[in-house]
């Protein structure tokens, strides 16, 4: 999963700045895919990164985009290190269409299980987009026999494995960024899990309800009673937006599809 070096220096315990990792991934992506994006000017790295994403998105929608095999790891690492859970779609969607849902989800599972805390959080954000329908048939892997455009696409593939890994990580992680990234897509109903994990579901639910982070508590809070003129019950307040809402960058067009595929509310 390394692109241009590992984030953690060997034996040092020091973690490299996530932005630097992302910029290296984007530079590698421009070279491997052949995107027509000029190098970043000093101080313009953030805007340059958005131009790279926009160029890939445009190329994906024009059709006829062939992604070389070397692009897979770079695309996945870029999606995982992109901190905005809307813009990571720009890297996830062509990867899904070219290389297939199982391979993409298997890689995200590896990040969640064995990655750095930054990568675990990023994998949880990117998982949301792994349920996108495959609507870019002209985006293909350059190598023959790679990808799933000609195969039956199972949009529930590896979902149970993800839920179990995410549940374990939510309970064991000491990092709020990992927990806040996992909780939106983590069902905490026992029906999603085998009996041997039901105690862990209870633990996760108790942790979330008493968590010091407001967002995590909100995600598991019971709905407020509704007041009407007959009963006098109080109306339910509007739910606060998730930080960096996925409503941006066209997320609304596939939200229902993604939720129905993952089975999470």
Itemize the secondary structure elements and their pairings.
Blueprint: H1 18-33, H2 45-62, E1 66-67, H3 71-81, H4 89-99, H5 101-114, H6 117-127, E2 140-141, H7 159-172, H8 176-182, H9 198-209, H10 214-220, H11 255-262
Helix pairs in contact: 1-2, 1-3, 3-4, 3-6, 4-5, 5-6, 5-7, 6-8, 7-9
**In angstroms, what separates the terminal alpha carbons?**
30 Å
Rg over CA atoms: 20 Å
Unreliable spans = 1-15, 243-252
Strand order of the largest sheet: 1-2
Tell me the major beta sheet: 2 strands, parallel
Q: Quote the beta fraction.
A: under 5%
How many strand units?
Answer: 2
Mean pLDDT: 84
Q: Provide the structure class.
A: mainly alpha
Number of domains: 2
Question: What string gives the helices and strands in order?
Answer: HHEHHHHEHHHHH
What is the global morphology? globular
Task: Give me the number of helical elements.
Answer: 11
Please characterize this protein's 3D structure.
- With 265 residues, this protein is an all-alpha fold.
- It has two domains: 143 residues, no CATH class; 66 residues, no CATH class.
- Helix content is 49%, strand content 2%.
- The protein is built from eleven helices and two strands, in the order ααβααααβααααα.
- A two-stranded parallel sheet has the order 1-2.
- Helix 1 packs antiparallel against helix 3, helix 5 packs antiparallel against helix 6 and helix 7 packs across helix 9.
- The longest helix has 18 residues.
- The N terminus is likely disordered.
